[in-house]
Amino acid sequence: MMELRLLRYFVAIAEERHFGRAAARLHMSQPPLSRAVKQLETDLGVVLLRRSATGAELTPAGNALYMEARTLLEQAEQARARVTAAAGAVTLTIGTLADSAGETGTRLAATFRRRHPKVSIRIREADFTDPTTGLRNGLADVALTRLPFDDIGISTRVLRSDPVGVVLRADDPLAGRDTLCLADLAGRPWFQLPEGTDPVWRAYWNGATSVGERPAGPVVRTVNECTQAVLWNGMVGIAPLTHALPDGLTWAILTDMPPSLLVVAWATEHESPLVRSFAHIAVNAYRPAQT
Amino acid sequence: MMELRLLRYFVAIAEERHFGRAAARLHMSQPPLSRAVKQLETDLGVVLLRRSATGAELTPAGNALYMEARTLLEQAEQARARVTAAAGAVTLTIGTLADSAGETGTRLAATFRRRHPKVSIRIREADFTDPTTGLRNGLADVALTRLPFDDIGISTRVLRSDPVGVVLRADDPLAGRDTLCLADLAGRPWFQLPEGTDPVWRAYWNGATSVGERPAGPVVRTVNECTQAVLWNGMVGIAPLTHALPDGLTWAILTDMPPSLLVVAWATEHESPLVRSFAHIAVNAYRPAQT
DNA sequence: AATCCCGATACCGCAACGGTATCTTTGCTG
DNA sequence: CAGCAAAGATACCGTTGCGGTATCGGGATT
């Protein structure tokens, strides 16, 4: 039977395109994943992955299942939230952009939990295609994300200003330089946000994108080994990196990209005492003279 | 973790309001269901059922989970169908109204499978609130259901005409009579379709409903022990009963209810060779002089 | 008070899950 | 082209947990 557990596994494999990395991300070993995929394949009567010596590629059916599984798991999460809400439980859903906000979120959530022990917290990791991390459709109550994006109806408080940088392979001709400008990167593959995403957000990142070619693979990918930045085959990311980069990668700041602002955000019309409290905690945590 | 298996179990329990009956319906024993519910309850941190000596009632949270689980399982089914469709597999989804159509569906599906071995078949059981069993929103390709309902855009072929009857407890004063009229039943509780359902369909059944009071419990319930009729605490159903009624129940035809027509139906604009083939098989199976 | 019925619990065998070790294949490389 | 490295598949194993039978406890009914 098609169980959610198998779908969780498959999503990890599909995103990593690699059984071993997926296993690491799931904190388990690789063989059960082989079995899980085979189980799904025999259950659905369909080949999901094209295995190779370098990893695994999605077949059309695999891609379909990846999309379906994502939404299904998301719907399951929402269902869970609605059920607990129906029981009178108070929940705060924190949306986080899949970059530095991840670790930030859990840290702030811990503080929040100390102050509001009875409120249960749910963290929803959104990918780069939605800078509001679901604020607009009620999928999140409060978000840790980045400006600029179309913020009408959204209240924001700036936490930190981060220069935008680029991640390079150590063997790159440009590696070793601390700063670069966009022109240095002309002609390289780049990441590109899909159409239909927030226009302001897209324009900001396309400022970088316009110098490069269109990418060949999927549009945005989050790399979990390095939660402090969005990497993609040695492409654009966000400084500062507090964690060390994986071996063989270096970092250079792009001097002509306007800085990206880490913010706490919420839908203005859904502002609540809990949301205010969380925003307050977040702003305090980043106040310069905190002592 | 909240797995689909647990939700399937919970849905059965919620509908039967009885662990034992749910176990029978799931072809398993009762103790694992106790465990499953407890597992869900601890996982969600919520009480789902109020247990009593006569069965189990849903708490508000339980009702919420019931709704969520239904849609989630449905979505999982659709997801599965879309994935196999993406692999180029051809699927025919047969919607069945939760009464006599159930058994009819599997029987016709068997014939259909013999004729089209490569087409995979999915049977979708719909409840009484949607006489089209999802034809309109693409949830089903072809339906075994009953007239009358609002059939604009829907093509139908009549398979059989069934008088409408009422199921009575053996200790009922009216039990033993073969025929009744609606007036005989004045003042009794009755089943009632929720607002927003197909108006023609609702009006038809409200013709019966109008003589009775409003029911107290949930609006429609399907009884699985008797797949040949919709029963509800000794309320209205559809003749003929080819299967014996459970002990303690009898059956009387309502002479002043217009008959209900068993039909095969499909969305006219989505008519396809497969749909035509299925309809043809269905009509042939019910032709009087078949020999 | 005795009985009945329902859900909960205890316990058991077995299927399935995840882990370790190893194999096969494939792409790369000297 | 031989050898190596890496990735997924397979074999096997200990443990978990699922579903089954037997039984218990507690309301409701008579």
Tell me what you see in this structure:
The structure is a homodimer of 291-residue chains. The first copy, chain A, is α/β, with parallel strands linked by helices and 291 residues long. Chain A has helices spanning 4-16, 19-25, 31-44, 60-86, 101-115, 199-209, 273-286; strands spanning 49-51, 56-58, 91-97, 120-126, 142-147, 154-162, 164-169, 179-180, 236-238, 249-254, 260-267. Chain A contains 7 helices and 11 strands. In chain A, helix 1 (4-16) packs across helix 3 (31-44), helix 1 crosses helix 4 (60-86) and helix 5 (101-115) packs across helix 7 (273-286). Chain A is globular, with a radius of gyration of 20 Å. Chain A starts with a helix and ends in a 5-residue tail after the last helix. In chain A, 34% of the residues are buried. Mean pLDDT of chain A is 74; it is low at 210-244. Chain A binds chain B through residues 1-5, 44-47, 59-61, 63-65, 68-69, 71-72, 75-76, 79-80, 82-87, 89, 120, and chain B through 1-5, 44-47, 59-61, 63-65, 68-69, 71-72, 75-76, 79-80, 82-87, 89, 120. Chain B binds a DNA duplex (30 and 30 nucleotides) through residues 5, 18-20, 28-36, 38, 51-56.
